[in-house]
Amino acid sequence: MNYLYQTTTKYNFEEFKKYTWVLINKKRLIISLCIIEAACVFLAIFWDNPFFYAFGAVYPLMLIGMQNRRIKKVWESNKLAHDRENIFEFYEDYFIVHTPNAEAKIEYSQLHRIIDSPTNMYLMLAANQGYPLIKANFPEGLEAFLKSKQ
Questions:
Q1: What is the pTM of this model?
Q2: Nearest 5 degrees, angle CA 71-CA 63-CA 128?
């Protein structure tokens, strides 16, 4: 049986970084930051201390920097994923992913969910495990096909 669509994804650090940031619960992060920022403003006004203003301004940048450092550390620890190219073949009820080390057949009903971002789609096998797909490599019709499988 011939596949309906085929695409490739070459993994690099930038793709891994995008994938990781998509998996971070952004709503929870934003709510946490808002609470911390409000507490800093309150404390700065209540105690008339400019330290809390400074901390409130620097803390989000520190948080992003620490997360990016963790992402880089994880990337560098997984040498197997560096510059690996996966080939995806999409059929009506399942897709096949060909990696340099293995091949897997996965039915769409087995997916945890499909995440759609402006530049990528992520076929999630679990809450924290999935396959990133680069939309720039999609043949015409694949994006709509995957959206119909959600």
A1: 0.80
A2: 40
